[in-house]
Amino acid sequence: MNRPQLGAIEVGGCNYVHTWSNPPKDKFIDEVTEHADLAIFRAMCSPRSEIKLAEALKVGEGLYGIRCGTFDVG
Predict the structure, then answer these.
(1) What CA–CA distance (Å, rounded) separates 7 from 12?
(2) What is the pLDDT of residues 12-68, one digit of tens each?
(3) Which pTM value belongs to this model?
(4) Cβ-Cβ contacts under 8 Å for 57 (sequence gap 6 or more)
(5) Residue 2 to residues 10, 14, 16, 55, 65: CA-CA distances in angstroms?
């Protein structure tokens, strides 16, 4: 944006996620590489759920009974 008093300025402010949460771009790969094995291990230990049954039964005007069944597949 071009302002008469200030000249060319950038509008938008600070990107807090990039500025405070992430390492600089040139160091990002080195920073996350050491944590990748742990992240993969934790993901493999997590349950994997599937919905096997989902029903909505009308009980009254604007009132429904919900029935849902899940199954851990891994």
Answers:
(1) 16
(2) 777 777 677 777 888 888 888 888 889 899 888 888 899 999 999 999 999 999 999
(3) 0.35
(4) 64, 65, 66, 67
(5) 9, 19, 24, 58, 59
